[in-house]
Amino acid sequence: MALPAIEHVQAVAFDLDGTLCDSVPDLAAAANSMRLYLGMDELPQQTVESYVGDGIAKLVHRVITNDREREADPKIWEKGFIYYMHYYRAHLSDLTRPYPETEAGLALLKSLGIPLVVITNKTEILAVELLKQLKLADYFSLILGGDSLSEKKPSPLPLRHAAEVLGIAPENMLMVGDSRNDILAAKAAGCLSVGVTFGYGDMPLLSQDPATKPDWLIGALPEIYEHLQPQKPQENN
């Protein structure tokens, strides 16, 4: 991405799971505890990882059926969902950790006076609590979960809502994420999209399709600062 295209960034939005932190170990542990509770065999962690990204309600369907598209029987799903939420909330950050340069990247962006937000499909109460447990919550002006509004990513609604709350135009906000949902939501909202290469999504594959190709790829969050920071003196002139 050419530097002039990011001169006017006034806020940065981040996905949570697979972007700010690696939460799959705890999501998978909850999934397998739920499957055992329902009398099923455990799934490999990699399989559970492939089901992450559309919120816990959808994750529970996929984990029960072991199928990305098929939905579970409603009664079994309800029993599993209640168990999953109870277990996962009690073990949110047992094994979940921020990616190595997450905090450094957030601190650098904060030093520029740019408001930061989280836009995740994770349930809001779990997202807020997880960010608190990881000691990252204070970096963010706004945290939106998958149940905060009437629609979640890939809908552009959460991004447009965040921009409205911050009093900026969507085109002046970056959306940073690891998945198809993040890129689609950014493009639909008119935001610049930044894909991370270290998350759960297959960014090289997504980059081959114009519909899901991010405007910019990064291998670590501090790279955002490195691209924005040189613009700051020009903006202050």
Automatic annotation (TrEMBL):
Known pathway: Organic acid metabolism; glycolate biosynthesis; glycolate from 2-phosphoglycolate: step 1/1
Listed GO CC annotations: cytosol
Highest taxon of the lineage: Bacteria
Keywords recorded for this protein, A-Z: Carbohydrate metabolism, Hydrolase, Magnesium, Metal-binding
Molecular function terms from GO: metal ion binding; phosphoglycolate phosphatase activity
Record-linked InterPro entries: HAD-like_hydrolase_sf, HAD-like_sf, HAD-SF_hydro_IA, HAD_2, HAD_sf, PGP-like_dom2, PGPase_prok
Enzyme class: hydrolase
Span of the signal peptide: none
Cofactor dependency: Mg(2+)
Residues of the active site: D15 (nucleophile)
One BP term from GO: DNA repair
EC numbers for this chain: 3.1.3.18
Gene3D superfamilies: HAD superfamily/HAD-like, Putative phosphatase, domain 2
Reactions catalysed according to its record: 2-phosphoglycolate + H2O = glycolate + phosphate
Homology family: Belongs to the HAD-like hydrolase superfamily. CbbY/CbbZ/Gph/YieH family.
Function: Specifically catalyzes the dephosphorylation of 2-phosphoglycolate. Is involved in the dissimilation of the intracellular 2-phosphoglycolate formed during the DNA repair of 3'-phosphoglycolate ends, a major class of DNA lesions induced by oxidative stress.
Protein name: Phosphoglycolate phosphatase
Species name: Neisseria lisongii
Source species taxonomy: Bacteria, Pseudomonadati, Pseudomonadota, Betaproteobacteria, Neisseriales
